[in-house]
What does this fold into?
Amino acid sequence: MKVRIAKASGFCFGVKRAMDLALEAAQRKSREKIFTDGPLIHNPQALKMLRKRGVVPLQEEKNNIGSTVIIRSHGVSPQRRRELDKISATVVDATCPKVKKVQSIIAKFAQRGFFVIIVGDGHHAEVQGLLGYAGKRGMVIQSEQDLTKLPLGKKLCVVAQTTQSRKNFFSLTEKIKERFPETEIFDTICEANRNRQEELKRLCPFVDAVIVVGGKESANTQRLVKIAQSKRVPTFFVESETDLDLDKLKHYKEVGVIGGASTPDWSLKRVVSKLEKTGNNNH
Ligand code: F3S
It folds into this structure.
């Protein structure tokens, strides 16, 4: 089996920065636990490593008064920020600068009287945080069916969840523009994801199967799985090398491997090295 690794240049520095800030805080306050407002990264092995160093997700706020809380790269709504300020001694804001930028576009346009449309998954933490910046002047849409819910007679501003598929965002914004030509549109899709999506599309025609490595909960990794499936390439979604189904995989001559934007390098390397060993054993 030949393994072809996607030259995925887009790296998610947001999650890396959040991890670094959490580890720094853990080092400074070695006697205290450091809390994160939700899991810092969608990768079980990385979470295990953080836990060993005393960095754990915030569960019961009332028990954590006085401790350090890290806001993860997804960011939080202004209301959540106020809550965190109340319950903790120190809040370390690790919101990704790119998410911050989307937050500030939303706040600015909502203040100017625009109604803000966020193209994304309404259940995702980033989108919930973003929506908070619109106050009562915002909504989330995900598909064409949602376009019927757009408010009439309002100036509209459209942004994207940073992990949105470009195809979906552009097809929706085109339709919005047709109906509301004055709409302000901001392509806020992060290029870490953009590059990976493009590279995966280029890789698919050259391989017999694709392995996507990343956390099952990671939105940008899930997006890669969908893209590979849409290209009709057999697709395997693994969190680590232990998830590899070698019995199935050994039937493919050439396998492509791509990690999500937030998948740690070491995790991807372990998958590749196990595949290569299997490939060599089959010769
Ligand atoms: Fe930020 Fe892009 Fe990562 S928005 S959190 S660098 S995927």
